[in-house]
Amino acid sequence: MENYAFKLEMDVRDYECDMQGIVNNSVYQNYLEHVRHEFLKSIGIDFKEYTQKGINVVVVRAELDYKYPLRSGDRFWVGLSITRESRIKFAFNQDIYRLPDNRLILKAKIIGTALNPRGRPELPKEIERVLNSTEKQSKV
Known about the structure:
By secondary structure, the chain is an alpha+beta fold. 28% of the residues lie in helices and 36% in strands. Strands 1-3-4-5-2 form a five-stranded antiparallel sheet.
């Protein structure tokens, strides 16, 4: 397990499972997105406020490696870290672990950017601040 900047526990709900009795593969992206939004809120970034300003934080690539399925009633946690990918892109590295045994369920790398009101890639100062902070920590 990595050192994560943010962690969140969740529960599998019955309606998220497919006919095989396991969480449908598309549902994992909902879990990951929810955790990204909660992380951003925790550091003062509000999607609604950004959208009202004409700034859109968007996913440009998603890589998901499914390791083991979750089932109805399972409790799990998602760990998240954020790194800079390029001048205008960042990556959320997210892992899902089942509780209580901490079995690895999924590894994901979600690459995003932000678009300014003109539709051009431009990272807001709040995201730059977080990325600069994580870069300094990784150099220590």
